[in-house]
Amino acid sequence: LWGIRKENLIRAINIYKLRRGEESFEYAWSRAHLSAVYRDLGNLDEAIDLLKGSLDFYNKNLPKDHVIQGWIKFHLGSTYRHKGDREMAMKLLSESLAINQKHYGKSHIKTAQILNSLGKLGIVCQTFEKSKEYLENALKVYSIENHHDRYKVYEALGDLYNEMYRRGDGNRSIMSKSLENFQKAI
């Protein structure tokens, strides 16, 4: 499936390049979508290069706080998180959060996606209280909408409490919170 998606996106990029040129919104947008395929396939450097190229184009052609900038920064920050570059991931995800909150508000699904990503990053960075805050805020938004992706937040909360248990004093109530969230995710 990923191979077919990758092949079709590459074909679309070539068409946009031929008909609209490399300095077109369509070219930049399709390259950003191709980056998601590369990220999911584990080609993180290729994904980062594509997203950086798109971000450069949008920086030249859109205001810095345009919602498309926020979308690109979210995906670039998430890719850096997968790569293990915590500092760059935090910078980009925080910028994306500010843009999305300004554009959509604090109670929008797109904002919740970024909060969830920041929460996951907090687990890796071992900033557990901040991670918990991000994840609980994401869960509030998903719950308001009764959104199907709230299981992702429950999984992240399960991971958070599990990591707190592993790094902490072995408090059984922490472990039960982990299991409770994993059960909610299921």
Q: Kindly, what is the distance between the CA atoms of the first and last residues, rounded to a whole number of angstroms?
A: 25 Å
**Based on the structure, what is the oligomeric state of the protein chains?**
single chain
H-E order? HHHHHHHHH
Shape: elongated
Number of β-strand runs: 0
Question: Which stretches are low in confidence, meaning pLDDT under 50 for 5 or more residues running?
Answer: none
Mean pLDDT: 94
Description:
The relative contact order is 0.07. The protein contains nine helices and no strands. It starts with a helix and ends with a helix. α7 runs antiparallel to α8. It is mostly helical and 186 residues long.
Give a quick precis of the structure.
With about 190 residues, this protein is an all-alpha fold.
Please describe the topology of this protein.
Elements: H1 2-19, H2 25-41, H3 44-61, H4 67-83, H5 86-104, H6 109-125, H7 128-145, H8 150-167, H9 172-185
Features:
single chain, 186 residues, mainly alpha, 9 helices, 0% strand, elongated
